[in-house]
Design goal:
Elements lengths: L2 E7 L3 H12 L3 E8 L6 H14 L7 E3 L17 H4 L18 H11 L4 E5 L4 H9 L10 E4 L14 H5 L1 H8 L5 E4 L1 H4 L3 E3 H10 L2 H20 L7 E3 L1 H10 L4 E6 L1 E3 L10 E3 L11 E7 L1 H12 L4
Parallel strand pairs: 1-2, 1-4, 2-3, 5-6, 6-12
Antiparallel strand pairs: 7-8, 9-12, 10-11
The structure holds beta-D-ribofuranose (BDR) and calcium ion (CA).
Beta-D-ribofuranose binds next to helix 1, helix 6 and helix 11.
Length: about 325
């Protein structure tokens, strides 16, 4: 039986690859996508998500638009240093028709989760504003959520600031609500995603597969490599992380990352470290473990999974 998932996205180049993996993997059933302010304004994230599903021939997957700004802070999208890596609109044909679903993503999340039998995994790969708002508005959804798999956080080093990873930094109050919600949480932070790089050679191999998904992924990852080499070089050149896709692959095959079950909280109130995921590896806080926090990833396995899944057609 495929695992049911809802992806909460701020699409974005790596979100786009994650959406294609989730939509095309035979091990997952993508119930729908919700969009949130993040890499770009939420209406661009929605348009980009529609473009991705059109491109791979799955326009029937529902897309619901969500929160346009963080819970408690000013809109900070324009400060995202990763913008050179994404741009506002994906390089794909415009979505054929305005077929974003009516109603707000938060209400759809609540209705869908309450109507479910507790079998839909939430996969937020953008700021956590939609998920936190849904929890605040209808806490009864919590008992229906088997697991939340988050792309976000950083222990060793951030990418928005020295301390903080972008998805958590953009809306730290929302992230704090979600990581402390009491449900099982897996976090795929930069510590893992920076260990699973996709290279220019991998992009050539993807392009050679000849499917719409693999061709688009090759283009998006090449753009990412260009941006990373210029602005955030990794431990080797000509390769870049594809963060959000690693989170989706970790649902299909949990062995792709190495996790530690530890207490994790989010700093919301500090001048230098706001948005930091504070990881209590040595259990100094006396708090129970609430997060399975990934510190490593299997790069060859990740690339193999991308090839296998993106080589499929709808
Ligand atoms: C995260 O930030 C965004 O720019 C990416 O889409 C990813 O979700 C990485 O820090
Ligand atoms: Ca994202």
């Amino acid at each position: 039986m495929p695992t049911k998932v809802i992806l909460d996205v701020d699409t974005g180049t790596d979100d786009a690859v994650a959406l294609m993996v989730a939509a095309l993997s035979p091990d997952l059933e993508l119930v729908g996508a919700t969009t949130v302010n993040g890499n770009t304004a939420v209406h661009n994230c929605t348009e980009n998500t529609l473009r991705v599903f059109d491109w791979i021939g799955l326009p029937e997957i529902p897309v619901h638009q969500g929160m346009s700004r963080p819970l408690a802070r000013e809109q900070m999208t324009q400060l995202n240093p990763a913008s050179r890596i994404h741009g506002d609109l994906l390089d794909l044909p415009q979505a054929t028709k305005a077929r974003v679903q009516p109603g707000h993503a938060v209400d759809w999340l609540i209705e869908t989760l309450l109507a479910s039998s507790g079998d839909i995994t939430l996969v937020p790969v953008g700021p956590l504003t939609n998920i936190a708002t849904a929890i605040q508005k209808e806490p009864r959804i919590l008992e229906r959520i088997p697991e939340i798999v988050i792309m976000g956080g950083a222990h060793h080093h951030g990418n928005s600031t020295a301390s903080a990873e972008f998805n958590i930094w953009l809306d730290p109050e929302a992230a704090r609500i979600v990581v402390n919600c009491g449900r099982p949480i897996r976090m795929i932070p930069l510590d893992a995603t920076h260990q699973a790089l996709v290279s220019l050679d991998d992009c050539s191999a993807l392009r050679n597969l000849g499917t719409p998904a693999a061709e688009a992924a090759a283009r998006f990852v090449e753009k990412r490599i260009d941006g990373y080499d210029a602005t955030q070089p990794m431990h080797r050149p000509n390769a870049a992380p594809v963060h959000d896709a690693l989170a989706v692959c970790a649902i299909i095959d949990p062995t792709i990352v190495t996790t530690h079950h530890i207490p994790v909280d989010v700093e919301t109130n500090a001048e230098l470290s706001v948005g930091r995921t504070v990881c209590d590896f040595r259990f100094r806080s006396g708090r129970p473990a609430n997060v399975h926090f990934a510190m490593d990833a299997d790069e060859p396995k990740f690339v193999r999974m991308l090839m296998e899944i993106l080589g499929r057609t709808a």
